[in-house]
Amino acid sequence: FRSEDLKGKKAIVTAGPTYEAIDPVRFIGNHSSGKMGFAIAEELYLRGADVILITGPTSQQVAYKGIQVKHVVSADEMYDAAVHAFDGAAIAVMSAAVADYKPVQAAVEKIKKKQEAWSIDMVKNKDILLQLGQQKKAGQFLMGFALETHNEKENALAKLKTKNADAIVLNSLNDKDAGFGVDTNTVTIFHQSGNETKVSLKPKKEVASDIVSFIIKHLHV
Ligand code: PMT
Question: Which of 108, 124, 170, 181 has the most CB atoms at less than 10 Å from its CB?
Answer without folding.
Answer: 170
